[in-house]
Amino acid sequence: MTRKERYTYIIDYFQKNAPNAETELIYDNPYQLLVAVILSAQCTDKRVNLTTPAIFHRYPTAEKLSKASFDELFPLIRSISYPNNKTKHLIGMANMLVENFEGNVPMTVSELITLPGVGRKTANVITSVVDEQPNMAVDTHVFRVSARIGLTLNATTPLAAEKQLIKFIPKNLIHKAHHWLILHGRYVCIARKPKCDECGIREACKYFEKLNH
Ligand code: SF4
After folding, report:
1. Count of domains in the chain?
2. Closest Cα to atom 4, ligand 1: which residue?
3. How remote is the CA of residue 208 from the centroid of ligand 1, in Å?
4. CA of 207 to the centre of ligand 1 (A)
5. Does 43 appear as a known binding residue?
6. Does 70 share its domain with 99?
7. 45 and 127 both lie in a single domain
8. Which principal EC class is assigned to this enzyme (predicted)?
9. Pocket perturbation via mutation, ligand 1, pick of 183, 192, 203, 207 by most ligand atoms within 8 A of CB
10. Which end of the chain is more exposed for a tag (fewer CB within 10 A), N or C?
11. CA of 10 to the centre of ligand 1 (A)
12. Is 177 a member of any domain?
């Protein structure tokens, strides 16, 4: 199977089987999503979802969050990974939203990456989830799954993988393909032992092909 054929097969499969794939983070508006995505670095969405209601209740806007002190916010974040840095990032991010963006979340990758705690991956998530922009966030799941399937070839960095993926995936599906690959990596093509026997795309998977020849 050629790489192009793998893409076609996999896109068809997910369009049929996961047409409404979306983020598992719970949020109501771009500000809440940005907070949740910053908190989700090196942490499960499940744990983030347990943490965010109290944060959103106490700090419903960027303006309110910008006035939080470290000691006020830290206890709400204590149970997730890297609470020190994330507390600082959230307050810094909120301050910058207020100072530079009138308290609103900007919707370009170049503006978003100026915010504390926001790298290219986070900026791609925000713009693709909120605005359906054709930006592919490559996290550890997307990176691993894409390489295993054979969607990416010899990509050594997330940016290299991102460039290959957006070259082959139709523009209007990129925002969705991100969730397809993440969820597949989270529940089926898991890091230690992929569940190939129950995988619906094994016919198009390079890893599976090699295992069986
Ligand atoms: S066949 Fe196995 S390695 Fe390939 S995508 Fe499915 S679970 Fe992952």
Report:
1. 2
2. 205
3. 6
4. 7
5. no
6. yes
7. yes
8. lyase
9. 207
10. C
11. 11
12. yes
Residue pLDDT, tens place only, 173-187: 999 999 999 999 999
121 is catalytic: yes
Residue 25, in any domain of the structure: no
97 has pLDDT over 80: yes
Contacts of 25 (CB under 8 A, 6+ apart): 33, 36, 37, 40, 45, 48, 49, 52
Task: List pocket residues of ligand 1, CB cut-off 6 Å.
Answer: 148-149, 188-189, 194-196, 199, 201-202, 205, 207-208
Note the helical H segments in 102-173.
109-112, 120-131, 140-149, 158-168
What's the mean pLDDT in 109-138? 96
Atom of ligand 1 nearest to the CA of 194: 7
Domain boundary among 75, 107, 131: 131
Residue 213: its pLDDT value, please? 77
163 is catalytic: no
Identify the active-site residue in 88, 139, 193, 197.
139
Are residues 142 and 126 part of one domain?
A: no
Query: What does the buried/exposed string (b/e) look like for 99-131 if buried means 16 or more CB atoms within 10 Å of the residue's CB?
Result: eebebebbeebeebeebebbebbbbbbbbbbbe
Provide the whole-model pTM.
0.92
Choosing from 115, 131, 147, the residue where a domain stops is 131
Between CA 184 and CA 149 the distance in angstroms is 11
| Shared-domain flag, residues 60 and 94 | yes
| Per-residue pLDDT, 132 | 95
What is the whole-number distance in angstroms between the Cα of residue 72 and the centre of ligand 1?
Answer: 44
> Token pair of 190, please?
């898991």
Domain carrying residue 49: 30-131
